[in-house]
Structure formats: structure tokens, C-alpha cells
Amino acid sequence: MQEKKYFFFDIDGTLTDNRTHKIVPSAEKTLHALEKNGHFVAIATGRAHYKAVSFTNAIDIHNLVCAGGGCIARNDKIMYMHALPHDKAVSLLKEADRRNAGWLVMLDDSDTVVMKDYRFLEQAGRRMELTSYIYQPDFSYEACDHIYKIYLALSSQQEGGWISTLGHLRMTQDYLVFQYDEKKKGIEEMMDLLHAPRKDVVVFGDDTNDLVMFDPGWFSIAMGNGNEKLKEKADYVTAANIDDGIEKACRHFGWID
What we know:
The protein has helices spanning 25-36, 49-59, 86-98, 119-124, 183-194, 228-233, 245-252, and strands spanning 6-9, 16-17, 22-23, 40-44, 64-66, 71-74, 77-81, 103-106, 112-115, 132-135, 149-153, 168-170, 175-179, 201-205, 219-222, 236-237. It has 7 helices and 16 strands. α1 runs parallel beside α7. The strands form 4 sheets. The chain has an 8-stranded mixed beta sheet, sandwiched between helices. The chain has a 4-stranded antiparallel beta sheet with strand order 8-11-13-12. By secondary structure, it is an alpha/beta fold. It is elongated, with a radius of gyration of 19 Å.
């Protein structure tokens, strides 16, 4: 009997064609072939849960490591939802206020953000993604139990060491996103939940944000269209995603027929 593997796939540039933003047909077929052969299949993405499920529901996959590893969903049920470290989040927001940098905070698994003033919109404009803005002038971030994400209006020229206390990425030239960024830890938590050995993990990725989940303790595959640093760290480099790279890798190692 074939040894069971536990697959974790990045979405953008790995499963999906960056030109169409749709899953590569051979990749979708391969995911279900892996499941049919008894393997575990999950998506590992930086997308928030509410965004990720619109993708997974469409392709009939039901296991997720999302929100940068901050949320674990097994059979469509959320098992964990990690917030940002509260003290660090509050400290960052206080410093942003001191510097007159506008911010938005996400307090739950939705497209809703809270703001106590209009500084973010004035400094960075509206986000390109669908967002529901709640204006709450008496809002206190110190009193919040959980802060899942912070959007901070800050140009690259305004960046400084004070923003390095929390993991972040730049979405546009006008603002930064601070969110949980532990894809590797999310995979480890899923494996612990499944009581499965971490050595049987197989991850697929394409960009620098996937470097954190390319761990020597398991098997890592980089897409042919991927970042060169990721390819250097990978155990195996397959063809580009649009050239059926996922299917080719899985056939190469005998995980599918």
C-alpha cells in the first residue's frame, strides 16, 4: 500500500494561473486524484478564511491552513483562529497614532474593518478589495479581545524600525498589512491535529512568501514559474503551473497514477 502523504498547496501562482486567477485544470484534477488515492489534501494560503473558502468551496476541497497559518479548518470546520499578539498590536497602533498614520483593524473573519477616524481613507484611499468600513469614533483597540489584522497607511519612504515588531507585507505603495504569518506553524498544527508524522508533509509553492513553509523536516516542491530563492530551497522543482507542474510532480513520485 502506498505511504499516505499530507499535501499543502499554495493558491496564487501555484494552483492558479496568474493571468486568469483560475485554478489550472490539471491541478484541480490532481488534487482529487490524490484524495482518491488516500492522501490528505489541504490549501495553505495567506488569504483570510472568509476569502479562502470561496476558493476551496469552488474546487471541493475542505481542509485549510489560511490567514498565513493563523486559521486551521478541518472538513470545513474552523479548529483554530489565532489573533495577532495583543500587546504588540496595541503598541503598533499607539505608535501609528503618535505618527499620525491612519489604520484599520479587522476584528473577525469577515471583510469588515473598524476605524475611529478617516485618516486611513484620506492617506491611502479605499482598499481595492471588497471592504466594509465601520466608523466608530469611540473605538478602543486596547479594549479589544482579538485583533486579527491591521492595515496601516504608510508609504515605503515612511517605513522605519518601529513596524518590524509584527510580520507584515506591502499590498500597495500606500499601505501595509500586519497579519499572522506562520504558514509553517499552521501546517504543524494541522499535522498535530491529525496525529500524523510531519515527515510525510509535502508542500507546493511558488513565491518568497512560501519560503517559511519550505522546511527541511518534510518535502518541498517549487513550481517552475516560481521564485529563484524558493527553487534553491526546494527538494524538487517541477514544471510551471500552467504546464501541468503539479500533475507532473505527483506522477513523477507515484502519488497518482
